[in-house]
Amino acid sequence: MKIVMIAERYPPALGGVASSAGRISRALARLGHELHVFVHARELPGGMVHSAELAAGLTLHRLGAARSLDFTLQQSLLFLEWLHSRQQFELVWGHYLTTAGFLGTWFAESQSIPSLVSVRGNDLDKQLFPGGDFARLRWCLERATTVVAVSRDLAAKVRTLTGRTAKVLPNAVDTQLFSPGTKSEELAQKHCWPAGELVLGFCGELRAKKGLPFLLQAFRMVAARQPTRLLIIGQVRGEDRGEFERALADGGSASQITITGHLEKPEQVADYLRCADVALLPSLWDGLPNSLLESMAAGIPVIASDAGAIPEVLVDGVTGTIIPRTHLHQLAQRIEEWLATPGETRAARIAAAREYVCRNHSLAAEESHLRELLNSVAGASCLPVAGTSCPSPSP
């Protein structure tokens, strides 16, 4: 099948939306589909297009964003129409409900092509409330040929909004790369980490929705009782840096915090993640965070909130620790409870967490889900996919 994926972000951009777009597009190409990925790029002059073949069957097109969104979208449609005239796409995949999903659904309808919209989490949650664009969100969900959600939680929200059923396509992780291992002495020496220090890890872009104040509060409380370091594998979002720095000024603990900054290679993320004794995800709302799956696969115990799809993966007392979002002020207490848990119990939970991810969220599992998804899309729209055929017309 010839597919054009319109992505909100794409590697090397930051965040789970970008990484999932990169991972899924490469998986589809490996399955034999021809992928063209289209994404807006702020680093290019407005209207300029840069195209590159990333792998066999996978081409990336970056369009420089204009100053205004409406002008950027008009230019996007012109380019997509031109590209479609040469490629004759059979499916438009909008990866992220807004703006990519809307652009994909609109373009697909204008060209009479089936469309698929992938709901990732923040795209739906933010648009539900003022000043989100609720009308456009609902139009997109109702008009897309197929709606895919990253979790059962998001699929339930789609059903509440529209009455239609969304297919669930969960996130995946490279379980060979993110696997248990020893702490890196090289990183410890590089950052001058004292031996025996407890390391609390957070992986991703730290911001308000990820529970920034609760994370810092818990860190200060634990650090007051024992030598502790907060390892932020990623960076603090610019708009939340002021709150982050004010919290540090009040607590005087900046010297005990390591911020890696953006790490381009997943191997680097895995190495830093193995340095953490506990991974913390005190999100106020979330989709299905990649960092959750990566931590579980790497054998790092996770203490997380019950936001979004986290409880679909993490079972309290079985594969990790869950804190209700109404009780995030108890995060430090739950950390200390975990540290006091008998070693055999901790080892069993860590092993159960990795086994769950390997069984349900591996790259092989994702490819299987994608194969089923594309076959169902082809069957619904009578488009040929390898291994399937359309029924013959009745006589």
Summarize the SSE layout with pairings.
Blueprint: E1 2-7, H1 16-30, E2 34-41, E3 49-55, E4 58-64, H2 69-87, E5 91-95, H3 97-111, E6 115-119, H4 122-127, H5 134-143, E7 146-149, H6 152-162, E8 167-168, H7 185-190, E9 198-206, H8 212-223, E10 228-236, H9 241-251, E11 257-259, H10 266-273, E12 278-281, H11 290-297, E13 302-305, H12 310-313, E14 321-323, H13 331-339, H14 343-360, H15 363-381
Helix pairs in contact: 3-5, 8-9, 8-13
Attribute tags:
alpha/beta; 2 domains; eight-stranded mixed beta sheet; Rossmann fold; disordered C terminus; 395 residues; 14 strands
Number of helices: 15
Structural class: alpha/beta
Termini separation comes to 28 Å
CATH structural fold name of the largest domain: Rossmann fold
Write down the overall geometry.
globular
Task: Round the Cα radius of gyration to an integer and report it.
Answer: 22 Å
CATH architecture heading of the largest domain: 3-Layer(aba) Sandwich
| H and E order | EHEEEHEHEHHEHEHEHEHEHEHEHEHHH
Helix content: 40-55%
Number of strand elements: 14
List the uncertain runs. Answer: 383-395
Largest sheet: 8 strands, mixed
| CATH H-level superfamily of the largest domain | Glycogen Phosphorylase B
Mean pLDDT: 90
Beta percentage is: 15-25%
Summarize this structure briefly.
The chain is of the alpha/beta class and 395 residues long. 43% of the residues lie in helices and 19% in strands.
Describe the model.
Helix 6 links the parallel strand 7 and strand 8 (167-168). Helices cover 43% and strands 19% of the residues. The strands form two sheets. An eight-stranded mixed sheet has the order 3-4-2-1-5-6-7-8, sandwiched between helices. The chain has a six-stranded parallel sheet with strand order 11-10-9-12-13-14, with helices on both faces. It is globular. Helix 3 packs across helix 5 (134-143), helix 8 runs parallel beside helix 9 and helix 8 (212-223) crosses helix 13. The longest helix is centred in the first third of the chain and has 19 residues, at 69-87. The chain is an alpha/beta fold and 395 residues long. The model is unreliable at 383-395 (pLDDT under 50). It has two domains: 2-172 and 362-381, Glycogen Phosphorylase B (Rossmann fold); 185-360, Glycogen Phosphorylase B (Rossmann fold, 3-Layer(aba) Sandwich), CATH 3.40.50.
